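Title: Comparing notes on inverse folding

I've been comparing how different people in this forum approach sequence design from structure. To keep things fair, I'm posting one structure and asking everyone to reply with a full sequence. Here's the target:
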């Protein structure tokens, strides 16, 4: 059974079916196909760091090899924070109502867009429909599947339909000098290039 995106606006839920919008749908696509000497399509692969194994597409989808060469399944993997402490797994938000928070259009510039979903309203609250038609934007938590990082989505609508732009908030580090630069003026009014003949 297909799962749904459910959002809550002013305490009233709205339910959407969703499908991912691909670049191919928007712009079309061309694909270069490398062929071997016999004219057969080549398959992409890469060597492991120690050169002992050829890794092809799909092999890392079930697990990884650790530094000692032991196979580690995805079920054994855990998320760690910056200090190396384990973090809890966050559940999928699908089929669970997520509160909407109205945001300004500039909010789209505060996030990285990793996916865009076209939404098909299964049930749409009248107040939310009115706000979307008025051009308002709303942010809500979004996780298509359980993981260790909660993404956010921006809900919006235009003449082409209703969409959710999914991404994570940008973390821009602030950098500054420990001490402000100071111009040092060594010119005390004297001309250092003048020769002092008394020194000879």
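Reply #1:
Here's my take.
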């Amino acid at each position: 059974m297909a799962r749904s995106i459910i959002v809550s606006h002013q305490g009233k839920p709205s339910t959407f079916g969703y499908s991912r919008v691909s670049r191919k749908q928007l712009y079309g696509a061309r694909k270069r196909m490398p062929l071997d000497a016999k004219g057969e399509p080549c398959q992409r692969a890469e060597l492991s760091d120690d050169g002992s194994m050829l890794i092809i597409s799909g092999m890392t989808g079930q697990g990884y090899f650790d530094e000692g060469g032991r196979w580690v399944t995805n079920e054994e993997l855990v998320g760690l924070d910056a200090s190396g402490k384990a973090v809890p797994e966050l559940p999928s938000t699908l089929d669970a109502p997520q509160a909407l928070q109205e945001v300004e259009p500039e909010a789209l510039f505060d996030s990285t867009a990793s996916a865009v979903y076209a939404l098909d309203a299964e049930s749409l609250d009248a107040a939310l429909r009115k706000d979307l038609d008025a051009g308002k934007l709303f942010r809500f938590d979004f996780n298509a599947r359980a993981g260790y990082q909660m993404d956010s989505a921006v809900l919006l609508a235009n003449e082409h339909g209703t969409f959710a732009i999914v991404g994570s908030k940008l973390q821009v580090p602030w950098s500054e000098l420990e001490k402000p630069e100071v111009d040092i003026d060594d010119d005390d009014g004297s001309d250092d290039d003048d020769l002092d003949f008394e020194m000879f």
